Amino acid sequence: MTVAIVGVAESDLGVTGRSILGLQTQGITRALADAGLALADVDGLATAGVARFSATQLAEYLGIEPAWTDSTFAGGSAFEMYVARAVQAIDAGQCTTAVISYGSNQRSARSRKLGGNVDAHTPEAQFEVPYGPLYPISYYAMVAQKYLHAYGAKRDSLAEIAVAAREWALLNPAAFRHGAGPLTVDDVLSADQVASPLGTLDCCLVTDGGGAIVLTSLDRARDLRADPVVVLGYGESTTNSGMGAVDNLLRPGSFDSAARAYRMAGLGPADVDVAEVYDSFTITALLSLEALGFCAPGEGADFVADGRLRPGGALPFNTSGGGLSYNHPGMYGLLLLVEAVRQLRGECGDRQVADPAVALAHGTGGIFSTHATVLLGRDGRGEWG
Description:
Pfam family, one: Thiolase_C_1
Number of domains: 1
Largest sheet: 9 strands, mixed
CATH architecture: 3-Layer(aba) Sandwich
Protein name: Acetyl-CoA acetyltransferase
Domain Thiolase C-terminal: 235-378
Oligomer: single chain
GO molecular function: acyltransferase activity, transferring groups other than amino-acyl groups
Organism: Yinghuangia soli
Number of strands: 11
């Protein structure tokens, strides 16, 4: 059985004043409306970040009793992982209509409670926490420092990631930085440093937000309201909790998750028309470009030069503005999928990529700890745009 995404939506974004469950409900009802379905059709539910029993609490709040749930907590990559689980559940007959959702009010609540709680008995607590790292930026900064040293790259290449993200955000009215004006490389380099070599403009936003996607069988999807977007392949990798045991900081598990997704889909990097990639920090995106096969290890700095990732560049990348300039509500992986689907359906207005057939969404969780890649494609029987 082939499975498709039939509905997508964002919740309110930015500074909302809403509760987590309120944002979740917004995203779910909007995504179901996009698909032409109702809450009564939902018999599968996946979510994280609500509470200890996230899917249970959300199902009760919605008044549904799903036949299948998943609340695996793997950080920002969890939502790409849920796509794989939802496809498998639908294929196995465990459910017919699965919703994947997320919501966070971290900016309104002035809280970052999702990050940095290390159990006292873990190796990280014993061997890393005593040195006072800021979670998670100190760890990403360590990877960035290693990258610049190993490959002789300059901070300019990291800055280019932020500059490109801002240019896309200027084309997206929903972006948190839509009205903030363009960035320059010098702006990024001169911003206050947080953890060398990363400054404030190398870091993702802190916002409220969320959204949802709806999946069902492709046969059923073709009778629904929206153009179906087919799940072509997926792959994941879980590598580390702390950083002390990582053999090679410059080879995260995204190399493996991408290879598995490409193999399942029978595709390669050259087939990807638009890429939506987790950018918690500029180094996350730069290293992911290499892991996803868009360039070889060590070539990322040269690859992003000359505006390759900016609007009009050779690789449409983080076309919403990404976590750096669009929205980042604690975990960003769900919104990568929303943008990928909208691009394939031709719904992105001024930022729309010309006639894309294949989109990639890639999530990263923890401190380069969990990695999940999803390849999506237009339904060959549908009409684009």
